[in-house]
């Protein structure tokens, strides 16, 4: 079964409740649109979150948001074909997948193109607030503007 939800910002408590209530399995997929918060800190905190999420009885398919490092820029991620298209994953966490922008995935016979979240232009606001700033936010904006 395919399920869809919005941003989690690193808080997966509602996903955990959902899995319990609906007795999901890793054959089920939860599509997370936007900021999942899984690659937000790029430190031990992210690893702890991934360890917890790896225990969930569901496959998480994440479409990156605007304040999360792109998995293709993180050395521990690998590519694989999933639902007929390219996806990113880490071997230690096979139920946590990230979409590749522009791919057209097949979800139980329904095709969906993936285009990740808005790219952030709030660098100074984030830095003043002591929040992480990912250089890929700015790089991708520049790439979009050039094309």
What labels would you give this structure?
alpha/beta; 27% strand; 6-stranded mixed beta sheet; 147 residues; 4 helices; 8 strands
Decide which structural class fits the backbone.
Answer: alpha/beta
Count of DSSP H/I helices: 4
Percent helix range:
25-40%
**Euclidean distance between termini CA atoms:** 37 Å
**Overall outline:** globular
Give your account of this protein's structure.
The protein contains 4 helices and 8 strands; from the N terminus they run βαβαββββββαα. With 147 residues, the protein is of the alpha/beta class. It has a 6-stranded mixed β-sheet. A two-stranded antiparallel ribbon has the order 7-8.
Concise synopsis of the structure shown:
The chain is of the alpha/beta class. The chain has helices at 13-22, 44-53, 123-128, 135-146, and strands at residues 2-5, 29-33, 59-63, 78-82, 85-90, 93-99, 104-107, 110-113. Residues 2-130 form the Calcineurin-like phosphoesterase domain.
């Amino acid at each position: 079964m395919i399920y869809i939800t919005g941003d989690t910002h690193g808080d997966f408590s509602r996903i955990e409740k959902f899995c319990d209530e609906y007795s999901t399995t890793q054959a089920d997929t939860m599509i997370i649109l936007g900021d999942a918060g899984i690659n937000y800190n790029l430190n031990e905190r992210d690893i702890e979150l991934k360890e917890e999420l790896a225990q969930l009885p569901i496959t998480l398919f994440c479409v990156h948001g605007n304040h999360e490092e792109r998995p293709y820029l993180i050395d521990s991620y690998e590519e694989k074909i999933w639902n007929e298209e390219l996806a990113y994953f880490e071997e230690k966490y096979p139920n946590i997948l990230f979409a590749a922008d522009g791919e057209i995935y097949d979800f139980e016979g329904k095709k969906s193109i993936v285009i990740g979240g808005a790219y952030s232009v709030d660098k100074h606001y984030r830095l003043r607030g002591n929040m992480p700033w990912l250089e890929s936010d700015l790089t991708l904006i520049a790439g979009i503007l050039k094309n």
